[in-house]
């Protein structure tokens, strides 16, 4: 039996003397392949000298037990094209000290709040994590939402250090929401007011807790299950948290110079930009993330499993090219050369033969992702060009069709069913249940399908508006959805968009 990765197996890899300096809400593939990798690079050069405590963001996480069993260690493989050359870099990352399940061990999270050496908070709870959830404050009980957890964490720190300015923290949320730092600050202050926390705490947050707007970019494909037999032999150990990503990375941060000095990413040559992040945000979220959301559901319904597999299909690729170049790019207020160059690089990255990015991973919180990544393109096209963007509308139809195949199994797991096979996935339970109930009312008739679309479109909490108010949208989505249900995605695309 292969030995598990641990400090016992590599006794010299962890610098035990390094203190915890970061608390991180999120322990998934992205943070481990991005932020934690960056901190590891700083530590290797002696420029940060601190480690990370990773907090599980949801009650159903499975990473923390594995992380602790491996003493915080995991392997990161970065492979793909770099300056036109194929590269593969394999490294054991040691920047994480431990993981905490706050739903079982909330006092351990509060202990971290009492640590005077903690300077930074990072997070990635997806777009669905930066939302308000009404909940009560119980000091010894873990709040459900990420903003609630952060508020309780900050309040405990405030109490511990009696409101000292030196106890303030720098918070860098990595969720792909425009103005993520400003939004998180508003949510923390809202919880503080509704929980009746003392005014001095609100003043402390406003004066001494810095919320930075950020943008992150790196494709992390996660655990390569299909390659693990080969990789175990190659590495000489078993790693349940082995993570694969691309070499490309971008981190844009709006923060004062002292934050840049405390996190000297530029000093070691990382692709980090300090300053206005808006140009980077629009390019990345609307093009790269928009591309993922635009075609994941169509690709899944067409029988594909990974991004590169979908990109190798001429019909799906043509659909994506139309959506990005003809619909997304015209809506971006960035120079044509810059946005076209970025779109070209995205298409190359999506076609990377090493990029085995599972479409079901992209499916996580896909409704909230559509709202952030594609709905702005739809609304701006209607407002400016007085027409509907066909590829974006088709992606909305395929998203609705995708949820016809998503439900809870007998074990309470969320599964996607396709051709008599079931695939376990992660998603928001409320969204899954709502859409499943909507589909249960569908009887196969045109009227029933129209009612289904109208009912889903009317959910203001999903979209931020009633989509039924957008001229002709329900009619064209009905047309596309009917074609998908009758003929399948590929034939519907050929007939409706690519003929």
Automatic annotation (TrEMBL):
Locate the Mannitol dehydrogenase C-terminal domain: which residues? 276-437
Which chemical reaction does it catalyze?
Answer: D-mannitol 1-phosphate + NAD(+) = beta-D-fructose 6-phosphate + NADH + H(+)
Keyword list, A-Z? NAD, Oxidoreductase
Keyword Secreted appears in the UniProt entry:
no
Q: Does the keyword NAD apply?
A: yes
Q: What is this protein called?
A: Tagaturonate reductase
Q: What sequence ranges are listed for the domain Mannitol dehydrogenase N-terminal?
A: 21-257
Instruction: Indicate the transmembrane segments per the record.
Output: none
Q: Which InterPro entries match?
A: 6-PGluconate_DH-like_C_sf, 6PGD_dom2, Mannitol_DH, Mannitol_DH_C, Mannitol_DH_N, NAD(P)-bd_dom_sf
Gene3D superfamilies named among the record's database cross-references:
N-(1-d-carboxylethyl)-l-norvaline Dehydrogenase, domain 2, NAD(P)-binding Rossmann-like Domain
Enzyme Commission code: 1.1.1.58
What terms describe the molecular function in GO for this protein?
tagaturonate reductase activity
């Amino acid at each position: 039996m292969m030995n598990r990765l641990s400090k016992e197996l590599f006794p010299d890899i962890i610098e035990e003397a390094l203190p915890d300096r970061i608390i991180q809400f999120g322990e998934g593939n992205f943070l481990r392949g991005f932020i934690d990798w960056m901190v590891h690079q700083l530590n290797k050069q002696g420029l940060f000298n601190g480690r990370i405590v990773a907090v599980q963001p949801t009650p159903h996480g499975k990473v923390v037990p594995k992380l602790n069993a491996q003493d915080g260690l995991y392997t990161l493989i970065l492979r793909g094209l770099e300056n036109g050359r194929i590269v593969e870099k394999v490294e054991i990352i040691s920047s994480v000290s431990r993981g905490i399940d706050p739903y079982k061990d909330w006092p351990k999270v509060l202990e971290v709040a009492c640590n005077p050496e903690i300077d930074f908070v990072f997070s990635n709870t997806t777009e669905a994590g930066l939302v308000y959830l009404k909940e009560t404050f119980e000091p010894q009980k873990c709040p459900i939402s990420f903003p609630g957890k952060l508020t309780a964490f900050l309040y405990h720190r405030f109490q511990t250090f009696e409101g000292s300015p030196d106890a303030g923290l720098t918070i860098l949320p990595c969720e792909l929401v425009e103005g993520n730092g400003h939004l998180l600050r508003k949510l923390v202050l809202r919880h503080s007011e509704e929980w009746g926390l003392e005014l001095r705490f609100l003043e402390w947050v406003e004066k001494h807790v810095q919320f930075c707007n950020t943008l992150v970019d790196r494709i992390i494909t996660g655990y390569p299950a299909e390659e693990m037999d080969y990789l175990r032999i190659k590495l000489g150990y078993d790693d349940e948290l082995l993570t694969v990503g691309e070499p490309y990375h971008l981190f844009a941060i709006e923060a004062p110079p002292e934050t840049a000095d405390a996190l000297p990413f530029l000093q070691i040559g990382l692709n980090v930009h300090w300053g206005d992040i808006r140009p980077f945000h629009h390019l990345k979220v609307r093009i790269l993330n928009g591309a993922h959301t635009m075609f994941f559901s169509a690709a899944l319904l067409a029988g594909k499993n990974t991004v590169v597999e979908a990109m190798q299909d001429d019909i799906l690729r043509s659909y994506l090219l139309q959506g990005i170049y003809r619909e997304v790019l015209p809506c971006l207020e960035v120079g044509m050369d810059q946005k076209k160059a970025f779109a070209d690089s995205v298409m190359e990255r999506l076609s990377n033969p090493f990029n085995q990015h599972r479409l079901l991973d992209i499916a996580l919180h896909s409704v909230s992702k559509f709202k952030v990544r594609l709905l702005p393109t739809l609304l701006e096209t209607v407002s400016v060009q007085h027409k509907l963007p066909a590829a974006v509308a088709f992606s909305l139809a395929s998203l609705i069709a995708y949820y016809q195949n998503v439900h809870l199994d007998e074990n309470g797991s969320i599964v996607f069913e396709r051709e008599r096979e079931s695939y376990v996935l992660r998603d928001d339970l409320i969204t899954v249940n709502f859409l499943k109930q909507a589909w249960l009312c569908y009887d196969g008739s045109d009227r029933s399908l129209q009612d289904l679309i109208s009912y889903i479109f009317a959910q203001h909490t999903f979209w931020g508006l009633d989509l039924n108010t957008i001229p002709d949208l329900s009619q064209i989505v009905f047309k596309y959805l009917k074609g998908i249900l009758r003929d399948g995605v590929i034939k519907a695309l050929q007939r409706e968009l690519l003929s």
